[in-house]
UniProtKB/TrEMBL annotation:
It comes from Saccharopolyspora shandongensis. This is Methyltransferase domain-containing protein. One of its GO terms (biological process) is methylation. It holds the Pfam family Methyltransf_12. SUPFAM superfamilies: S-adenosyl-L-methionine-dependent methyltransferases (SSF53335).
Amino acid sequence: MTGHSHDNIDWDEHLQRLRDGDELNAPEIAELVAKLLRPTDRNVIEIGAGAGGTAAAFAAELADSGGALTVVDTAPQLLAAAEARVKQVSDRVEVHAVQADAADDSLAEAIAKAGAPAQADVVFAAFVVHHLPDQLAGVRRLANLVRPGGRLAIVEFGLETKVLPPDVGLAEPGLEARLTAARQDWFRQMRAEMTGTVRMPMGWGKALSEAGLADVRSWSYLVDRPAPVSGVALQAVLRRLQFLRRDAENRVGPADLAALDELLDESGEHYAGTRDDVYYLTANTVHLGTRPAS
Ligand SMILES: C[S@@+](CC[C@H](N)C(=O)[O-])C[C@H]1O[C@@H](n2cnc3c(N)ncnc32)[C@H](O)[C@@H]1O
């Protein structure tokens, strides 16, 4: 069984970051899951479940009725963490953890072989399809895991995350916009370097329609933690700046790199962790489609 993804990212190394993200996003995720699950839904498959925060929210929502929840991931430690997280929530929800590759046509077979229901009322995938070499084929594969009448929900980036004021007092104003452009270039390169990469020249909603889903609609939700931030929101700000630092190397000028280093220097006077004007604001978009009943 494969233990790696296609994007040259060791996802197991991201466990703590994903756990922190789950904590930060918990209120919005709980709201989204409550909105997605219909009263008769009993069976959910989550692809690329990360640290298991969303799966746990599904399990909490299914706890009264009972049901089955299948988490699928290529990263073994993340999969184990997600399984453990979900099992803490309710013993009325049957949990299946399947190490499988969403880019592989044997995905459905791997799920069935693990003894999990082969199709679900809801198939959910957040921020994972863009890590597959052929995203449209991935959407089709996920749509095939939906039972007739059931729904596929994909969450992808809505707007780029913002954490800095327009002028941080270092380098030229507009630092974050330049860093964000560098990150978008990193993303382009990440996709371009995947073996077998295929462009998807259409929006996510259209991709769901192309995959045979009906009643496709999209909406966005904000994760809004205004300044001043502390605790998990401040940690998210610092992680975002660390991400931007990694992606900025060789992509922005020396003055911008130096400014970012100052913002990340815990002992310096400009450390973002002690500023009272940083904030965390992002918009995620949900794309939902229904598999026709026949
Ligand atoms: C950006 S994380 C998102 C995690 C979680 N959905 C969330 O929103 O926090 C991407 C997740 O997809 C998983 N993943 C990446 N490539 C995959 C693949 N080809 N098949 C299955 N899972 C994959 C990673 O291991 C990780 O759990």
